[in-house]
Amino acid sequence: MDWATLFMKMDASVDSITLFVVLLCFCIVIGHLLEKSRWMTESVTALFIGLCTGIFILVTTKGKTSHPFVFDEHLFFIYLLPPIIFNAGFQVKKKQFFQNFITISLLGAVGSLISFVIIWLGSTFLLKNLDIGFLEIKDYLALGAIFSATDTVCTLQVLNQDETPLLYSLVFGEGVVNDATSVVLFNAIQRFDLSHITSTVAMELFVKFFYLFLTSTVLGIVVGLLTAYIIKKLYLGGHSTDREVALMILMAYLSYMVAELLDLSSILTVFFCGIVMSHYAWHNVTEKSRITTKHGFATLSFISEIFIFLYVGMDALDIEKWKFVSKSPGKSIGVSSILLLLVLVGRAASVFPLCFLSNLTRKSQSDKIGFKQQITVWWAGLMRGAVSVALAYNWFTMSGHTQQAGNAIMITSTITVVLFTNVVCGLLTKPLVRFLLPQHKQSSNIMSSELSSEMSLVLPVLTNREDPKQDSMSESDRLPPNLRMLLTRPTRSVHYYWRMFDDSFMRPVFGGRGFVPHIPSPNQNYLHERLLPEQHTIVE
Amino acid sequence: MDWATLFMKMDASVDSITLFVVLLCFCIVIGHLLEKSRWMTESVTALFIGLCTGIFILVTTKGKTSHPFVFDEHLFFIYLLPPIIFNAGFQVKKKQFFQNFITISLLGAVGSLISFVIIWLGSTFLLKNLDIGFLEIKDYLALGAIFSATDTVCTLQVLNQDETPLLYSLVFGEGVVNDATSVVLFNAIQRFDLSHITSTVAMELFVKFFYLFLTSTVLGIVVGLLTAYIIKKLYLGGHSTDREVALMILMAYLSYMVAELLDLSSILTVFFCGIVMSHYAWHNVTEKSRITTKHGFATLSFISEIFIFLYVGMDALDIEKWKFVSKSPGKSIGVSSILLLLVLVGRAASVFPLCFLSNLTRKSQSDKIGFKQQITVWWAGLMRGAVSVALAYNWFTMSGHTQQAGNAIMITSTITVVLFTNVVCGLLTKPLVRFLLPQHKQSSNIMSSELSSEMSLVLPVLTNREDPKQDSMSESDRLPPNLRMLLTRPTRSVHYYWRMFDDSFMRPVFGGRGFVPHIPSPNQNYLHERLLPEQHTIVE
């Protein structure tokens, strides 16, 4: 078979799909074989396989092309990203996510704003001296948005939800909010006339920003609740498990597409849709549907992730852009180093002060985020990924192609930063976590103490629902309820009232884990739990 | 919101994807609500919803367009068909399929050849008088191939595997072979110079035909076995359920794409890949993966099916083609009626003689396919579906558009035949089955007697593996083994030797349901079953 002609004519999608499917299979098998290694992660494996394939194609086509098709942000944003983010919301440990919600929001929204400002201003001053072609003020702003998007996908692979639950929920939750923030910022920069920023424009931007956050979240919650309601009312599972699963998939995707259509942050929408679905709809379906959705969504997300890394790896050798760069290698290295430096500084300037702020609200010493943990949070969030690449392509190219030297350098620098942070951070994070936090118990203790402050109040209610492991952990440092209540009142009462509301209004309407009224007696509680679900199905 | 401009600019894919996702959700909910109706099936519901949406778009755009995009055979053959056919192979009851394998092959391959010849010759003689523009000899041949493809998808929805197992396996199995035959025929017509058919060309065609059948089947089996082997060797499930599921999905899709790439019959390939995967690979994965794959594949197939019907329904109002037709409505009705008639006659000419032939090989009276059942087989296979539409678009249009009156009439006639057969056959099959075969026990008895003839010989081996229900059924009319062996020797011994081969060579290598050696003693058998899987994991 003549490989050169094959790769050249690869617009025909059957060929390139086959190539990608074969590579995906390779990634899974090789990723599995390398799993025991301390260093490798699946994403780095996929990046390497993508790179090698790119080199192979480049050699066989004698330097004409390195990939069967150019990076297509449409493919990325419409097909690959939704399953990843939805699955993240669907599988996230909700309790930990919401207990750290304030810290996560701080790191995600304010943190990426800080990163954005630092990278924007830094690049404005530092890149000017490099003479890389004319960049407008808008271009520097876009750079800020592009490089303030951390990579949620990598984080998921590097940190372990069970080993370091607090860090995982912090870094991951932050990543989602962060992604959303950058995309919102990016869209705002595209649309607003930012050549002369006045305080009015800044205010307008700020209002729009919060409006988008709010509406996106609400949309996701509404779609999630609607799904739960439909599944509960129609009792689809009684007739067909497949219909339930199909409806969940379709509604989740619908939330994303509607958000796209309304120019909202679809990432935020589908994330909250995932959270709400796992809280209500997931409990309304049959046991088989639960297993199928849990593993089915995870599988789709897994395939999408590997696909993205393969894609980025293969695209890294995009010869069209490197031709410009090869004329001025020094410049390109300069730009990449500057951007990398700004990413490091920007993240440090957001993580450490914000963790300090967050620690101020945590009264107990064991609740605070330690310095070593802060370093891990800083480090784990350094990775830049497919979102950055997609935004860079969107900004600096016309449907994947560019003829301008400055733009080509920006694309190659983005790819360099993405590859560098992924490979270096990806390879070093596992060892770093082991070095900085050698006792995994330590971090899980912090987690459990966070939990326990919760537990102590709601314990009588929770005893019958929570798994015994968490209970026994919280036993250790329980204080008299009223004392603790004084110390950390605000968050707790919000959570407490939410529970009340959830149990007395939301769950009867939308389903969810067996409806439990607020009766402290364990026996009665047990009775209610046993009886009510059956009454439900009979009455309704 | 201005609907007209929205529908006009709907090339933008976010809009049309959103529309389709909303409609799919509607189809699921409405299909569920109508489920108890005797008449409606999910496919007819989807067709109607598609039609209504088409009319709505047509009205709001003031007759400019009826659909957000033109029927795309690429979308159909690359994304929608593979999950349906793979799932069909994955879920088919293998025992029944292989016991009726000769009848299925007869009906599928020879039957569609008979249909093809009748429709080809019939249209050549009958359509000539209608003056619908110049049609070449190739066009008539193509018509034969287009209309000899029955619709597997509809059959699955109309017949019930549990109520009428024999009919289901006959009609469905035939449908798959039929689809493959038509596509192979169609490709052959496209490539061969058929303006003057000589006996050499016919012979060549025949050889090519069988070569394609064989290679396609072998490819599917090889990919299926490879998947089973990889999963068994790597023991992926021990680490990640999602990897197993991902590998199964990817390998299944790979088999289809490789077959496409090699110009084989990808439908046959992916069908046999599904069968082999469910026989070996499915037993090598974790319990959770089994549930996930079973329901996950079914869900994907379900969504694809509804999507196709929505699509065909919406496309039925393609205004570009109907404009030609509106100038000569009589001609169009004539063509549609002639084609419909030929489909009816062609199917009758293949089903009844072939069933007669098949009955000659069945010695026992209860094994024979009764006349009422033959009518049901004839009727249930009348439906023409998306494969016909896709082939017609491929032949008579240039990427969805045509400016020739004759071609436009062919497209609209195809759509008319598809809609008519689907709606009429779809609506009447359920009542017909109930009318012709009022006792479901009758048909299941025929099934069980077919099974029993099998059972009686292999019973000592099977006792520990088959579910007790089937055994008790076979109890009823069991004959002395050697007597029955004399009566139906050939098929049985093939199956017997396959079992031997499967147990002694295939299963130890490729996994599959717990490896059981041929030892009649139940105790020892039990021991082996319990011990061997563990030895496996330790040794390998």
Automatic annotation (TrEMBL), chains A, B:
GO terms for cellular component: plasma membrane. It catalyses: Na(+)(in) + H(+)(out) = Na(+)(out) + H(+)(in); K(+)(in) + H(+)(out) = K(+)(out) + H(+)(in). GO terms for biological process: regulation of intracellular pH; sodium ion import across plasma membrane. It is a multi-pass membrane protein. Gene3D superfamilies: 6.10.140.1330. The keyword RNA-binding does not apply. Pfam families: Na_H_Exchanger. It is found in: Membrane. This is Sodium/hydrogen exchanger. Residues 24-434 form the Cation/H+ exchanger transmembrane domain. InterPro entries: Cation/H_exchanger_CPA1, Cation/H_exchanger_TM, NaH_exchanger. The keyword Transmembrane applies. Keywords: Antiport, Ion transport, Membrane, Potassium, Potassium transport, Sodium, Sodium transport, Transmembrane, Transmembrane helix, Transport. Belongs to the monovalent cation:proton antiporter 1 (CPA1) transporter (TC 2.A.36) family. GO terms for molecular function: potassium:proton antiporter activity; sodium:proton antiporter activity. The chain crosses the membrane at residues 12-34, 46-62, 74-90, 97-120, 166-189, 209-231, 265-283, 295-313, 333-357, 377-396, 408-429.
